[in-house]
Design goal:
globular; 9 strands; five-stranded antiparallel beta sheet; about 425 residues; single chain; about 30% helix; 12 helices; alpha+beta; four-stranded antiparallel beta sheet; Dyp_perox_C; 2 domains
Length: about 425
């Protein structure tokens, strides 16, 4: 009987230890993935791990708060978030500058409050912490004519040129106002989406809305570049804030900004890119890697090394051909192949179910940030449009370009310098 009791107690301890290790690994992964500091939450996480029957305490994933205001709006420099919502509005007929200013005041107050945690009055996220919630606001080209602010419209908001591979649906493109919501908890993100929609009231109506996701913090043993729905590492060689020319490429300068209200701001290009996953999955692994120019396993260039190794574009294989094909996505999209053009990519994956033909309606909500789309997105997309091997497996179905002003100062609302300047 004693042997049986000992075996039972040993099994129970192993079960608790297993749960502890799994929970603690998840917490450690979350810290690494977001670059977070494990402070007071560490003790709570440890307590929850030792008590498998109790609900897990607020972890670092839930307790992390992104600051509102500052030089730039939130949602640009933060790590990829697990859940995202994009929503565009058109001002209601008869609504103008006055109504737009009142709306931006409401939205800014709501964003500031929700980003601190606790959720809206709807109580959807009442039990959650801030979960890295970010809410970002931008203006589309048509906003300026509808508010009588044509003289303040940036030249960088000129319409994007047409690309031959586009199959853009205008009903899911553009818009007077654009809002990006991101969080590391789906309920927190949805709560913010509902609050933004309700705040619009009679001043603006929804033009289109899209939902996206990324890998959750802590889902991998160590921090790593995200993968897209093709299984490819996606985001290698993204510009880094530590680079000396990062601000110049991504943000409108504080001095000499044209127009002045865009100082510290950035321009967001938003594209819904459907991936033809059934066609992609028919390719053998080596064929997929040649389309991209990188190994699928770890994102390293086909010429060898690791993900961060510079590709040897001139390297020739035993067959006498360059190892990285001339039409490989990684070759064509490199900044040094596009006059130094650079943009900060911060996308979400999406899946909107199965289409009538049985194929998945899935892909990428591509979002890129740059100080000037004429020098960022446009030259790269033009080159991709002319000869990217990946073009056979993707379809650009919607498009938008938005001016995203800098972060609001103390007591300001987003866009105040434009609307009251």
């Amino acid at each position: 009987m004693q042997d049986s009791k000992d075996r039972t107690e040993t099994a129970e301890r192993a079960s608790v230890d297993g749960i502890s290790r799994r929970r603690l690994l998840g917490t450690a992964g979350a810290v690494g993935a977001g670059g977070l500091v494990l402070g007071a939450a560490g003790g709570a996480a440890g307590y929850a791990a030792a008590s498998p029957d109790a609900p897990a305490a607020l972890s670092t994933v839930g307790s992390t708060e992104v600051a509102w205001g500052g030089a730039h709006q939130p949602g640009i420099l933060q790590p990829l978030q697990a859940r995202g919502h994009l929503i565009a509005f058109d001002l209601a007929p008869g609504a103008g500058r006055k109504e737009a200013a009142a709306l931006l005041k409401r939205w800014s107050a709501t964003a500031r409050r929700l980003m601190k945690g606790g959720g809206s009055d709807a109580a959807v996220a009442r039990d959650a912490g801030p979960s890295s919630l970010t809410v970002t606001f931008g203006f589309g080209r048509t906003f300026f004519s509808r508010t009588g602010l044509e003289k303040q419209r940036p030249g960088a908001l000129d319409p994007l040129p047409p690309f031959s591979s586009d199959q853009v649906d205008p009903r899911r493109s553009e818009g007077d106002l654009w809002v990006q919501i991101g969080a590391d908890d789906a309920l927190v993100a949805f709560d913010a989406l509902r609050a933004v929609q309700k705040d619009a009231g009679q001043a603006a109506k929804v033009r289109w809305q899209m939902n996206g996701f990324n890998r959750s913090p802590g889902a991998t043993a160590e921090p790593m570049t995200a993968r897209n729905l093709m299984g490819q590492v996606d985001g290698t060689n993204n510009p880094k804030p530590s680079e000396p020319d990062f601000d110049r490429r991504i943000f409108v300068p504080d001095s000499g900004a044209d127009p002045a209200w865009m100082a510290g701001g950035s321009y967001a290009v938003v594209r819904r890119i459907r991936m033809l996953l059934d066609d992609w999955d028919k390719l053998a692994l080596d064929a997929q890697e040649k389309v991209i120019g990188r190994r699928k396993s770890d994102g390293a260039p086909l010429t060898g090394g690791t993900e961060t190794t510079e590709p040897e574009l001139d390297k020739v294989g035993a067959d006498g051909k360059v190892v990285i094909p001339l039409d490989a996505h990684a070759r064509i999209s490199r900044p040094d192949q596009n006059g130094g053009a650079a943009m900060l990519r911060r996308p979400f994956s999406y899946h909107d179910g199965i289409a009538a033909d049985g194929t998945p309606d899935a892909g990428l909500l591509f979002i890129c940030w740059q100080a000037d789309p004429l020098r960022g997105f446009i030259p790269v997309q033009r080159k991709l449009d002319r000869g990217d091997a990946l073009s056979a497996f993707i379809r650009h179905e919607s498009s938008g370009l938005y001016a995203v002003p800098g972060g609001p100062g103390e007591g300001e609302y987003v866009g105040q310098r434009l609307l009251e300047g």
